[in-house]
Amino acid sequence: MPRSILSMALPMTVAQLINILYNIVDRMYLGRLPGHLALTGLGLCLPIISIVMGFANLCGTGGAPLCSIHRGKGEQEEAERIMGNAFTLLVCFGVALTVLGLLFRRPILYLFGASDATFPYADDYLTIYLCGTVFVMIGLGMNPFINAQGFGRMGMLTVALGAVVNIVLDPIFIFALDMGVRGAALATIISQGCSAAWVLGFLNGKRAILRLRLSALRLESGRVKRILSLGTSGLVVNLTNSLVQVLCNASLQVYGGDLYVGVMTVVNSVREVISMPVSGITSGCQPVLGYNYGARQYSRVRQGVRFTAAVTMVYSVAVWAATMLFPEQLIRIFNNEADLIAAGIPAFRIYFAVFFCMSFQFIGQSVFVALGRAKNAIFFSLLRKAFIVAPLTLIFPALGMGVTGVYLAEPVSNVVGGLACILTMYMVVYRPLGRLEDQLDR
């Protein structure tokens, strides 16, 4: 099991890191423009980008584990039909999000914390980004189906292609052509289009075990319900992330102003980078756990859970220590302004105070999704962000903590939500699998 998980997790971890670099590189370049308004403007778009990615995850993380389970049972045709239905859903959601986003972007951005100074930057970026929504949906939403077939390296190349294109085009459009935030957005959608084309090319090619066939694209209510039910946890993660980002930006705008919204943009950027290896490891275990669960190899499933938990915890503790020791160096990756660094260092030390506890949430959540336990996955997706972080983001500042209260909500949720998730997984999944294992041995 360790070898099987690593063969999937390592390429997926690299892919996740590349995917973050894909998104982070815009912030790194825009942070080099004079002032911090361009970086802050992009930060205001992040909740909307998170929503778009959430709908991609709704279909990708909902359909891919089901494919793995059916492959484990030897039901190839049903696996292909699930993949085809997921593709149709992705295109439909992509078109709908594009239209709605373009129509309502102005009130949404002001609702999400924009000021008159930052709105032009946010509007320029978002208008162009939304035009590539369908590319995002296909590239991000269909790539898990490549991984579910055991082609982890090919899934990694999907993301790598887009990242390389984005990294090359960003400085050309932003600086050489003097397009600023519009150039960053244009580079992003071109790179996403390249990733989408790569995914479609592979899934229609000879190497694919499951192919994207026209006969499988017609939506069937039972399959759609199963995909959306299991994928809802992935959507909820992104929607609650978006909700928290909105509340943080709005609260920071009230208690600190544009500077502190910029600080939160940097905090979120660093969090995405350092949490992605954890996400890659836990996502990499899902096809392996799902396949073995479908094949009734419960001892291997338990072994996979133990291995994933151990690797995740070791990494989380190491990266937590590095974040506590070197906050200034991490901030300087995105911006060198003295006032932003001065405000950012204490924010970092509060926000990441118990970051290692976040791994508990990732471990428990990934096991629930891998084994098709939709209700558990959805509940714990909501618990940490919607029921803990969101209220505390409003309550702590109102109690007189100001901007410090906004940052403090995260570590509280890491401890409470993370422990609740992993302990529940142990009680309702890991231990019962041990009993099933004993029954098979008899």
Shape: globular
Q: From the alpha-carbon coordinates, what is the Rg to the nearest angstrom?
A: 21 Å
The count of DSSP E runs of length 2 or more, i.e. the number of strands, is 0
Question: What is the overall number of helices?
Answer: 15
| Portion in helices | over 70%
Strand content: under 5%
Assembly type of the chains comes to single chain
Report on the architecture of this protein.
The protein is mostly helical and 442 residues long. The protein is built from 15 helices and no strands. Helix 10 packs antiparallel against helix 15. It is globular and about 65 Å long.
Q: Can you summarize this structure?
A:
With 442 residues, this protein is mainly α. The chain is 86% helix and 0% strand.
